[in-house]
Amino acid sequence: MGKIVAIANQKGGVGKTTTAVNLAAALAFAELKVLLIDMDPQANATSGLGFTPSKLKASIYDVIISDTPIESIISDTEIDQLFIAPSRIELTGAEVELVTVISRESRLKKSLKNITDKYDIIIIDCPPSLGLLTINSLTASNSVMIPLQCEYYALEGLSQLINTINLIKDNLNPDLEMEGILLTMYDPRNNLSREVHTQVKDYFKEKLFNTIIPRNVKLSEAPSYGKPIFSYDIRSKGSESYIELAREILKRL
User: Fold this and answer.
1) Within a domain: residue 132?
2) Beta carbons of 10 and 18 less than 8 angstroms apart
3) Closest alpha carbon to 124 in 40, 220, 33
4) How many domains does the chain have?
5) Which of 36, 77, 102, 119 could form a disulfide with 2 if both were Cys (CB 3.0 to 4.6 A apart)?
6) How confident is the model over 182-202, as pLDDT tens digits?
7) Helix, strand or coil, per DSSP, at residue 67
8) Which residues span the domain enclosing 128?
């Protein structure tokens, strides 16, 4: 049965979607069958793989709200072995619509029940919040990866996220584990980046990934072309770093 990994952080702009898209692509290039689920109403993971969200007939919104079978919304991508369950802006209203729904925290988990064993790994790109969409994602997952930006206030709010993870583990998903902390937007010339690295390493120890994602302009440019970094510039520092991250994940699998 495939492993389900949620990529979550309630802070925006930390490289969450960049990590979801490029890690999924790297694992697909390693010949794993990968499903990327876009649970973010901004649909950046969807557009980052070349899809136009507004032109989609159905999305993960229909799965969560209307019990549409998730198999019917999954699409191939330009990368062999990489598939996506896309998002649309309608997902913005899902949290309000879910308030009165029975077992609202487990809608995604229920939808994945029949397809989990069809993939080697499922990666969920969570929205930058700790609302019902993120709770659904964590309830459905085996583990959670937290991208952490190497800047001031990087640790702000992290304790709240870890507390949420522990609450979900205690009440909704006892199998949920911490996959690890991933440092992103690292600049070795910057004293602050090095200080954040030291602090996080001292506190989280073995929960910190060895791979560090650098601040890299190619990583920022690739989504505007609807491509993961490997299809845009495979020789870039960003590409090399996500290959290394995929290797770490493969060892754990």
Assistant:
1) yes
2) no
3) 40
4) 1
5) 119
6) 999 998 888 888 888 888 888
7) coil
8) 3-245
